[in-house]
Automatic annotation (TrEMBL):
It comes from the Eukaryota. Pfam families: RGS (PF00615). PANTHER family: REGULATOR OF G PROTEIN SIGNALING, REGULATOR OF G-PROTEIN SIGNALING 18. Residues 86-202 form the RGS domain. PROSITE patterns: RGS. Keywords: Signal transduction inhibitor. This is RGS18 protein. The gene is Rgs18. It comes from Callaeas wilsoni. GO terms for biological process: negative regulation of signal transduction.
Length: 204
């Protein structure tokens, strides 16, 4: 079923059929939940930081270590030039999304792109039965106060999202996803374009 209220182009990002995104996230939350009451819990995010490195999220990911984008033999300078045309163009291509994700990991600020990817996966849900567990997982992982990978959202957006999670719709996270998209477009994306790794790709 197509997303009735698309905010962004549908990307070729899919979770494993055997282990959907929300199930992997749920497992990670359970592993981390006992740490929530300890000081510095939000800094202890190593396990969750590895989630997008799993094959469920990036099948065929050959970009190598964070920041080492020149390892991507399949990325030509011409393709890299297109990534600089717009943030939407960067995220609409699998190699561009992977490269940007790895750049954020190198800065230890990958929670925004992970949230964005989770929302894209959420909107692909085929039934209302799938929406509730996914919505709960995304909210507990990225939005609620002191979430293990809490993204920067204003109070109003958080509250509207919280109220919708109990009876989630395909559009439940649209406002939050749009806010995070703009934050990345205005802040992280320009830094990515200035990074040494990206400049090396431009020059082959």
């Amino acid at each position: 079923m197509e997303n009735p209220l698309p905010l962004f182009p549908q990307l070729n990002i899919s979770a494993s059929k055997d282990k959907p995104y929300y199930q992997v996230m749920t497992s990670a939350i359970k592993e981390e939940s006992h740490k929530a009451g300890k000081p510095g819990a939000k800094q202890k995010r190593n396990r969750l930081s590895l989630l997008l490195q799993k094959p469920e999220f990036h099948e065929g990911d050959h970009l190598g270590k964070p920041g080492n984008l020149t390892k991507a033999a399949s990325v030509s300078p011409e393709e890299a030039v297109k990534w600089g045309e717009s943030f939407d163009k960067l995220l609409s291509e699998k190699a561009g999304l992977d490269a940007f994700t790895k750049f954020l990991k190198s800065e230890f600020s990958e929670e925004n792109i992970e949230f964005w990817i989770a929302c894209e996966d959420y909107k692909k849900s085929r039934s209302a039965h799938e929406l509730l567990p996914k919505a709960k997982t995304i909210f507990e992982t990225f939005i609620q106060k002191d979430a293990p990978k809490e993204v920067n959202l204003d109070f109003h957006t958080k509250e509207v999202t919280r109220q919708s999670v109990g009876r989630p719709l395909a559009s439940t996270f649209d406002a939050a996803q749009s806010t995070v998209y703009r934050l990345m477009e205005q802040d992280s994306y320009p830094r990515f374009l200035r990074s040494a790794a990206y400049l090396r790709l431009l020059h082959g």
